[in-house]
């Protein structure tokens, strides 16, 4: 067995819960015809629950279209929920009006995948970073704003003179640093990183992940790290939630999940992660077929059409969520027999 890393030790932390998502459901209506009649739904997220403690990273992983980004956007209130609750520090935020939500909004920030489109090309970097400081009234004067912007540029390891330049003058990794500085400017408790390093080159990815980890340590930030890249997730998270067709099928501490995956889908995903040590080579499980449509999901266990160990009952009976001693959750009939 490997020694416990800082990340593993941290996953046992007793910090208070910051964010709690309870039975989150988000279905998007499909409208057709002249009268926009609702003819079906995209079942993007269905009965998803998890919590994140202060200073913790929870990774939300799964193939594209599994609903992980919709979870992030639901927490940000970019749209209304179909059902479920979102709690921030003991306050239920999913049902707040825009005005009551406003003071809480700054506490959750987001970094999106594409640093090229998420920065306004007509604004200088210092104005981009100053925007949340002004919007949330976090400084009393222009001099205070300038000092804060300089401090944030320093924190994300861009020189002070970066403030006077335009977004197009920077590389992808540097732009993502600007996005991080802008997120930090609001003084948040939680940052949602939605595929935040997916568009970057491997070496730049590692630099941004290291920066996020350093900032987390320094500022006690909680991170919801949404990604399809398990190789990156393994190095930067405390716990992992694996999603398939809108549901969490396994949720476990990082070390448990990577050393002993339990759900057949998690096993298949991990078997596809490249292993640098040829001695540790594992048998790759190639899943048959594509992910079914979230408009018409298979009955029973949604994974049964691709599961290499499916039972007869999996076609008709949805598995319960089995919670094991360590708090690990797995949703599979094989664990209930
Ligand atoms: Fe496979 Fe059945 Fe488990 Fe679903 S419940 S993962 S189909 S064995």
Q: What is the fold named in CATH at topology level of the domain at 4-107 and 188-288?
A: Rossmann fold
* Strands, total number: 12
Largest sheet features? 8 strands, mixed
N-to-C order of helices and strands: HEEEHEEHEHHHEHEHEEHHEE
Shape: globular
Under CATH, the homologous superfamily of the domain at 4-107 and 188-288 reads: P-loop containing nucleotide triphosphate hydrolases
Distance between the termini: 28 Å
Please give the CATH architecture of the domain at 4-107 and 188-288: 3-Layer(aba) Sandwich
- Unreliable stretches (pLDDT < 50, length at least 5) are none
Q: What is the typical, i.e. mean, pLDDT?
A: 91
What compounds sit in this structure? iron/sulfur cluster
Q: How large, in whole angstroms, is the Cα Rg? A: 21 Å
What structural class results from the helix and strand content? alpha/beta
- Name of the CATH first level of the domain at 4-107 and 188-288: Alpha Beta
The percent range for helix content is: 25-40%
Count of DSSP H/I helices: 10
> Which strand order does the major sheet show?
6-7-8-3-9-10-12-11
Q: What percent of residues are in strands?
A: 15-25%
Can you walk through the features of this model?
The protein is of the alpha/beta class and 337 residues long. The protein has a domain at 4-107 and 188-288: 3-Layer(aba) Sandwich (Rossmann fold). Helix content is 30%, strand content 23%. The protein has helices at 6-11, 68-75, 98-105, 125-135, 142-155, 172-185, 202-219, 230-236, 254-259, 264-271, and strands at residues 17-32, 37-53, 57-61, 83-88, 91-92, 108-111, 190-194, 222-227, 239-244, 247-253, 322-323, 329-330. The strands form two sheets. It has an eight-stranded mixed sheet, sandwiched between helices. Strands 2-1-4-5 form a four-stranded antiparallel sheet. Helix 7 (202-219) links the parallel strand 7 (190-194) and strand 8. The two termini are 28 Å apart. The mean pLDDT is 91. Iron/sulfur cluster binds next to loops.
């Amino acid at each position: 067995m490997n020694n416990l890393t800082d990340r593993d030790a941290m996953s046992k932390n007793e910090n208070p819960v910051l964010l709690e998502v309870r039975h989150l459901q988000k279905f998007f209506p499909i409208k057709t015809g002249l009268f926009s009649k609702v003819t079906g739904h995209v079942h993007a997220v269905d009965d998803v629950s998890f919590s994140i403690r202060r200073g913790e990273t929870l990774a939300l992983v799964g193939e594209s279209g599994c609903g992980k980004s919709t979870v992030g956007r639901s927490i940000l209130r970019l749209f209304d929920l179909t059902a479920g609750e979102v709690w921030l520090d003991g306050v239920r935020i999913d049902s707040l009006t825009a005005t009551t939500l406003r003071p809480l909004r700054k506490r959750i920030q987001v970094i999106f995948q594409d640093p090229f489109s998420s920065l306004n090309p007509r604004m200088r970097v210092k104005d981009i970073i100053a925007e949340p400081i002004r919007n949330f009234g976090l400084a009393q004067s222009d001099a205070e704003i300038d000092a804060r912007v300089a401090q944030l540029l320093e924190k994300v390891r861009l020189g002070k003179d970066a403030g006077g330049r335009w977004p197009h003058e920077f590389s992808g990794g540097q732009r993502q640093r600007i996005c991080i500085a802008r997120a930090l400017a609001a003084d948040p408790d939680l940052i949602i990183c939605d595929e935040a390093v997916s568009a970057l080159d491997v070496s730049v990815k590692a630099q941004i992940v290291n920066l996020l980890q350093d900032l987390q340590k320094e500022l006690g930030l909680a991170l919801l790290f949404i990604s399809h890249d398990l190789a990156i997730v393994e190095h930067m998270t405390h716990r992992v939630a694996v999603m398939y067709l809108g549901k969490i099928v396994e949720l476990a501490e990082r070390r448990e999940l990577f050393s002993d995956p339990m759900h057949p889908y998690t096993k298949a995903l991990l078997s596809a992660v490249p292993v640098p040590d040829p001695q540790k080579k594992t048998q790759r499980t190639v899943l048959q077929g594509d992910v079914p449509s979230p408009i018409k999901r298979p009955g029973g266990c949604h994974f049964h059409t691709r599961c290499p160990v499916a039972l007869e009952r999996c076609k008709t009976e949805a598995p319960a969520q089995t919670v094991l001693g360590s708090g690990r959750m797995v949703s599979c009939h094989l664990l209930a027999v």
